[in-house]
Amino acid sequence: MTDRLPLWHTRSVEQTLGDLATASRGLSSAEAAQRLQIHGPNELTSLARESAWRTFAAQFKNALIVILLIATVISGFLGHTLEAIVITVIVLFAVLLGFFQEYRASRALEALRQMAAPTARALRDGEEMVVPARDLVPGDVVVLRAGDRVPADTRLTQSVNLAVDEAALTGESQPAQKTIDPFEDPQLPLGDRRNMTYAGTIVTHGRGEGAVVSTGMSTEFGRVARMVETVEITRTPLQENLDRLGGTLGKAALVIVGLVVAIGLMRGLPVIQMFMFGIALAVAVVPEALPAVVTISLAIGVRRMVKRNALVRRLPIVETLGSTSVICSDKTGTLTRNEMTVRQLYVDGRFFDVTGTGYEAKGEILEAGAAIDPPDGVRALLAPGVLASDARLVTRNGRSQIEGDPTEGALIVAAIKAGLDPGSLNAREPRVSEIPFTSERRRMTTVHTRTDGDPIAYSKGAAEEVLAGCTHHLCSGREVELTPADRERIRATEQRMAADGLRVLSLARKTGATVAEQPESAMTLLGLVAMMDPPRPEAREAVRTCETAGIRAVMITGDHPLTAASVARELGILTDGHVVTGRQLEAMSDADFQRDVGGIAVYARVSPADKLRVVTAWQKRGDIAAMTGDGVNDAPALKKADVGIAMGIAGTDVSKEAAAMTLLDDNFATIVAAVEEGRIVFGNIKKYLMYLLSCNVGEIVLLAGSVIAGLPLPLTAVQILYVNLATDGLPALALAIDPPEGDLMRRKPRNPRLGIFTPPVVAMLVTGGLWSGIVNIGLFTWGLRAGRPLEEVMALTFVALVLIQFFNAYNCRSDRLSVLRRPFANRWLNIAVAWELALLIAIAYVPFLQRAFGTFSFSAVDWLMSAALAFSIVPVMEAVKWMARRGWFGDLA
């Protein structure tokens, strides 16, 4: 058997199955495992990514690193051997730090890509099961349904109204209608091979089965992949902004360094000394590790989100989540349990209750509170729920589960409770065609062949839609004409059921000669089925969290308005106002809707186009909108939303592809948790930048201020480089993984237009930097006037500068909360500072380090004085935070 033959479209179904040595019920698990060893996994070969060595070498592309290495060589030639060695060691530390940051970030992203591997439905051992798509092999038979991404190249063996969007492969704008018939032309273009489906394309409607003929790099998409040599890496808007910041700082560094060096040379300072000093000052100004730290922060946030059941496909969404101000959520499965249970039946003017919950087929049919043997009318009502259905009731690990739509599953369970056997029903009346459900039609109709050979059509869907196509109803076992009074009575019954929070469906049938041509007209109404999907308890708490966090929760559902209102009130989403239906929304002008959208909490009976309109209206208000979806037609709204969120369990592959984030548990509470993680990530990046830039400002004020004031150079080049390494290193990284502030989800959403550098943040970093520079210039001046040797005064200033930045790290854990509130909650920061303090003590007392860094054995008084001056930054920053909390610098957000 060949892995890939180019002429599968010319073979009949029987020939294809024979060539692949398979059957219509697929392979056995053992045979599939053997073929997997031969053909390898069904995945595109990973494109070339940078190796660890390339990542390491890339660190030397940094212009500042190159300048430092040149300076090291010059120092060595001039006889400054010890200084050259120390600079080399510092450079290597900086390079290794950057390497590990980037390497870890790339590995984290790779791990996330692996987690997002798709699945497929395949027939194995004669049973349909969900398997990883990478485990498919030639000869497997896969099941395709609307919304699925085709997992491999297949030759279709069954096709029921199957259409596939192949635009990504063929460029055809319209979905291709599929057939199982062979084609004679061996040169037929891909787009005309209507009996084939190709990996990566999307099933838009219908269903089918196909025998896998090619996998992995042997597929048509694999051929395209061979031409691709590079992988596009998405950069976040935040990273782009920070790149611009780095460029600005680089230009500022050139100006400052040029000015300081020029003044030093005019004062007669040695050229080599000023050259080394200028390089060190430039390194101090530019935070070269900034992009890598941002990437790590985002990647760590993404991994934390996965633990909370939110899978993010693109890093930029992490920062967007943090400023989400409105969440537009589906009801079913997201705000509710997605375990539909039939509760009530209405047949021929009689009400019947159904006991039992969930998908366990255990329960009874009750009338007036007493268990009864279901009458024929009940069985006639529930039979179409089995026949006009694509769902299946299966048992896994001793638990009943539904494969397919939960509503269809609930109908099947109810039919079993009424004594019907789904297998027998489908065998007795096999399906021959169908009109699939769409969100615009809100009904599904199937045509079957009865045992006598006559056709019969069954329809189920929204009560008003099905009722509109009915001319008769079931009465005492007979089909009688529907009168206007009957219609009004049925509508009133449906509304009463819906007002109790129940979802109501109508079921109908049609027999006769016109079934094939007009299956949905002149039907006979069989009755109403009312079911419920209870709200998730955690969703109630999540809605309350949204309220305190300033996030608007909006429900958007295709259910009846009364059903939607009942669930929304129970969850706390609908506290006042009314429910807006799709028809009402359509009647509103754009101007009127834009004016009113902020006051609408619940939408019912909406179409995908309505969802798109809602998202657009919120965005025009300046809000950051998240939107959930699970169907094929939700893709436009998911793409339009600032944060498109697909359902991982109930969602189609199309919705997952269009979305930026997937809920692994389909739970609204997970969205709120992801928003919290987004706020944490953005807050930690802000803390890192606030700390790093305030340290840089402090170094610049000290160095430039001393030179301009006519003082000697306060630090050696080696000391400057070490200070930069100590602050840019472990303490800064520890802030990037700081625990969240306690009131994070009690703040209103961040305005994304404000960016990081809000007035309070600028006040913090400028004040911290200025105070650090002033304190250290004061210490340096005092030491000189006290008559202490210049080398000792420089060493004291060096130690005080390091210590003040350590105290400042704790200040920068919040731009509003006091440092005294849980001061040591960040254990990684505690470890980082303790480690750096140990190194500082070693630099002060180990003889060869004393020579390298120009230090001496400090006395207790020296340490106390340096520590006291360094601690002075704490009350200064506390005063700034106090003013920020009282609005002196504007909005804290």
Count, helices:
32
Instruction: Give me the count of strands.
Output: 28
Rounded to an integer in angstroms, the radius of gyration calculated over CA atoms is 35 Å
Percentage beta strand? 15-25%
Domain tally:
4
Extract low-pLDDT stretches.
Answer: 108-117, 227-236
**Whole-number mean pLDDT:** 83
Helix content: 40-55%
Overall 3D form: elongated
CATH class of the largest domain reads Mainly Alpha
| CATH topology descriptor of the largest domain | Calcium-transporting ATPase, transmembrane domain
Distance between the termini: 64 Å
- The CATH superfamily of the largest domain bears the name Calcium-transporting ATPase, transmembrane domain
Structural class: alpha+beta
CATH architecture of the largest domain: Up-down Bundle
Keyword list:
893 residues, alpha+beta, Calcium-transporting ATPase, cytoplasmic transduction domain A, Calcium-transporting ATPase, transmembrane domain, Rossmann fold, 4 domains, 11-stranded mixed beta sheet, 8-stranded mixed beta sheet, 32 helices
